[in-house]
Design a protein that fits this description.
alpha+beta
């Protein structure tokens, strides 16, 4: 398990071995090469969006000029409250456009 600190949540966000493996297999352009971008996105996002289908899920996004010629990185974080509060990465992906979710916070 890899912990990333997220000031927006005032908590560490976990990346489990199973979720890392999922990201590596479904988004091989992202990991392992750009793992530091996961940390940067959680530490200093451009925008935080609420997933409209899953109310306990947020999508942290950040633009990187160096990511595949200029793309957004989206890191999807689930907040569980039972049995104890826990934040964990369910997936992460590279995108050209932000389509999913409603904006909760945006850098001005």
């Amino acid at each position: 398990m890899i912990p990333f600190f997220c000031p927006y949540l005032s908590a560490h966000v976990e990346l489990s071995a199973e979720r890392r493996s999922h990201i590596e297999s479904t988004h091989p352009e992202l990991l392992p090469e750009y793992q530091n971008y996961l940390a940067q996105t959680l530490a200093d996002p451009d925008e935080v969006r609420r997933d409209s289908r899953f109310p306990n899920t947020r999508i942290f996004t950040r633009w990187f000029d160096q990511l595949l010629g200029g793309k957004f990185l989206a890191v999807v974080v689930v907040t569980d409250s039972h049995p104890a509060e826990r934040q964990w990465i369910v997936t992460a992906y590279v995108t050209r456009k932000l389509r999913q979710g409603e904006s909760e916070w945006k850098r001005t």
